[in-house]
Amino acid sequence: MFLGIDCGTQGTKALIVDDAGRTLGRGHAAHDLIERANGAREQEPSWWVAAMAAAVRGAIADAGVSGRDIVALGVSGQQHGLVVLDETGASIRPAKLWNDTETAPQNEALIAGLGGAAAWFDQLGIVPRTGYTISKLLWLKENEPDNFRRIRRILLPHDYLNYWLTGRAVAEYGDASGTGFFDIRRRVWATAPLDLIDGGSGFLAAALPELIAPDAVVGSLTAVAAEALGLSTRCLVSAGGGDNMMGAIGTGNVRAGVVTISLGTSATAYCYAEEPVTDADGWVAPFCSSSGGWLPLICTMNATNVTGRMVSAFGHDIGFLSEALAATLPGAGGLTLLPFLNGERTPDLPTATGSLVGLRSDNLTQENLVRAMVEGVSFGVTGAMRRILGGRDPDRIFLVGGGARSAPWRQLIADASGAEIVVPAGEEAGCLGGALQAMWAARREAGTPEPLSAIAERSIALDADKTMRPDPARRAAYDDAFGRYADALRRIYGVRA
Ligand SMILES: Nc1ncnc2c1ncn2[C@@H]1O[C@H](COP(=O)(O)OP(=O)(O)O)[C@@H](O)[C@H]1O
Ligand SMILES: O=C(CO)[C@@H](O)[C@H](O)COP(=O)(O)O
């Protein structure tokens, strides 16, 4: 048996699968979030550890198996968060997260510091957006110099969990490619951006962990970790990766031609590529995959965090989202909502707020407002998706993340994109990706290597009941609603969709 763990923004999930990738059991535990009006979004790394232990124990109980029989595990984690450890290995402060927009001024200063976007692109193959790890380090130096001086180790969320599990601090290419101090073409740390922060003293470079290959084993569980999770100290830990990289593995997106959209706290769209992808406008994040290649990706900061918030502001539980979609027509009666409640990364509007356009006395209903929010979130990702596909429309999309549980939302994405929507059985693609990567690493370690593509091919099944086909009759209404969304974006923010 293999175990996948996914530390998302709202919670940690765990999934146990057998050798054929079939789901045996799942667990879940929610996270708190520190949110401040200035855009700060933070979590204590210790919360992730506690949630991981609860989710894994829940999955073991759900599967009715012995945790001691789990051979290997892989950890998927929200990208870009900054975990800083002191000389004792303790976390210095809460981690600033991928959706923290407080560091927008530091990001701007760093882009200018290296000579502008073109210089970044030349040197690293990537231009940092607010939310990437690098601006959090400059923020720490400027705002908490005592904490900055105590830094001895810099880790991403999933690397921190691997460190907690094994005692070994390492990083792998996929998640590292979202830091802003990694050369995405050559797959090595790039210290020039760190020099801008520490004056070239090498202080920050010395805190970077060793980079390992995606099919490497980090180590096995410490006695403390094995006890906390209910596993054996023989259990191996694979390299893991960013949640999108692991979602890619969990949807078989390890070869060209597969497209995945995740509706989690963020909405993302990504597809595997053999070569690094360039995008002069900077909408596409040209990340590495955690399977060997690259993973060009579009990420918007506002997805189920804002749809869930609107539903609860109206006093309902999440089931109301599907009810509202079912009770309304495409276009939300003429309402258009730009859902940038937490600033936005794609397009690059870190200090933006949400906007509602087209309100009339005949369309002011809770249901239309929820639909307008869901449409705004969906258009942000479906409208930008062509950029990762060289301008093409996909025929089929793997839909994952919490939002994929809503049948009317799946239908909306099918109708608005013109693609067939499929959902992997077991739902939790990030967890499944972790488990499959663990299988890949364990096979290599045992001297019986198997290509990841073959493991994915035989392990990923679709949940046929959740497939949605596009209805051409609704396409025109969505094209019209998207036109209004694009128009609002241009008029309010001067940005072309
Ligand atoms: N049936 C549903 N309909 C719509 N949204 C849902 C449904 N079930 C869950 N969600 C949304 O998914 C969110 C969790 O998504 P998830 O992918 O687990 O987020 P993350 O990985 O960022 O923690 C919930 O907070 C909720 O808003
Ligand atoms: O920043 C990104 C991708 O670049 C986000 O996708 C985070 O990785 C958070 O993921 P979820 O919590 O939405 O799964």
Automatic annotation (TrEMBL):
PROSITE patterns: FGGY_KINASES_1, FGGY_KINASES_2. GO terms for molecular function: ATP binding; D-xylulokinase activity. HAMAP family: XylB. One of its GO terms (biological process) is xylulose catabolic process. The keyword GTP-binding does not apply. The active site is at 243 (proton acceptor). The keyword rRNA-binding does not apply. The record marks 6 as: Important for activity. Substrate binds at residues 79-80. Catalyzes the phosphorylation of D-xylulose to D-xylulose 5-phosphate. It holds the Pfam family FGGY_N. Residues 260-442 form the Carbohydrate kinase FGGY C-terminal domain. This is Xylulose kinase. Residues 1-250 form the Carbohydrate kinase FGGY N-terminal domain.
